TrEMBL record:
This is MYND-type domain-containing protein. Residues 1-41 form the MYND-type domain. GO terms for molecular function: zinc ion binding. Keywords: Metal-binding, Zinc, Zinc-finger.
Length: 272
């Protein structure tokens, strides 16, 4: 419980508006709301409206392009998490560069359709399941300070009882570990290691304040593109794509199968 600290065996209820805090009961929720959560709840209830991260249906669309699956905030910096593409889509594929380089020519690292599993197996490549998340992060500090976002330190925590499914397909360099949660084992995984060229974790800063980020001249908010280190002024927002290795095989083959095994998402943000 975010108010009294009680551990309630996974039965905590989230705030219905911002979904970023959890309580063991109505009494704690009301007490916390009156004490300090009122301002935070209003401040972080919704992400900024931007064409690159549409969280509400527009026009004749029945569903949002980027439904929010998780959200939270820390030190005045809020984040909202969606998934790249449709949740019914197959998980992304990462290939191990043990084949001729020509087999990789023209393949976009974040393109779901560029390389299918059959082609990968014909080339003798190692296929990995990657869940691609799209994270919008915005500095909403009221004291005028910058917010430092450490994207490479992001973590996904699984629900209990799925450790074997999640840990399949681990490769050297991937950061993942098992820990005890409410007396049962859960998995914490970090952004997947990039096996292609040792550039670090598989993440990419794609937009800053609605402007597409290019590799040649990144904006001043991007301190380190490889590690996704951002220094956001109040009001600034960024969109980051990041990929997590989630199992290997038939147990987890689609985005929704990976998402339903996840419990929480963590993105470190601090005041410089």
């Amino acid at each position: 419980c975010d108010y009294c600290g009680k551990k309630d065996g996974g039965k905590l209820q989230a705030c219905s508006l911002c979904r970023s805090v959890h309580y063991c009961g109505r009494a704690c929720q009301l007490a916390d709301y009156k004490a300090w959560h009122r301002d935070d709840c209003v401040n972080f209830a919704r992400p900024p409206f931007t064409a690159e991260f549409l969280t509400e249906p527009i026009g004749e669309a029945q569903f949002a392009q980027a439904p929010v699956f998780a959200s939270g905030h820390k030190d005045g910096v809020g984040f909202w998490v969606s998934v790249a593409g449709n949740v019914e889509a197959s998980l992304d594929l990462l290939v191990d560069p043990v084949c001729p380089k020509s087999a990789l020519d023209g393949i976009d690292r974040f393109d779901k359709t560029a390389l299918d599993e059959r082609r990968a197996r014909r080339c003798g490549l190692q296929v990995q399941n990657l869940l691609t998340l799209v994270v919008l992060v915005q500095n909403r500090r009221k004291d005028g300070q910058k917010g430092l976002v450490l994207s490479a330190q992001c973590q996904l925590m699984s629900v209990c009882g799925v450790v074997d499914d999640i840990m399949k397909g681990r490769v050297e360099g991937d950061r993942a570990f098992v820990w005890q949660w409410s007396g049962r084992e859960a998995t914490v995984i970090c952004a997947a290691d990039d096996q292609w060229n040792d550039e670090g974790p598989r993440l990419c800063v794609t937009y800053i304040n609605g402007t597409k980020v290019t590799g040649s001249r990144p904006p001043p908010q991007v301190l380190n593109a490889t590690r996704g280190i951002l220094a956001l002024n109040p009001g600034d927002y960024a969109i980051v794509h990041m990929q997590f290795r989630v199992g290997f095989g038939e147990e987890i083959s689609r985005d929704w199968e990976a998402l339903c095994r996840m419990r929480s998402f963590r993105l470190p943000a601090v005041a410089p």
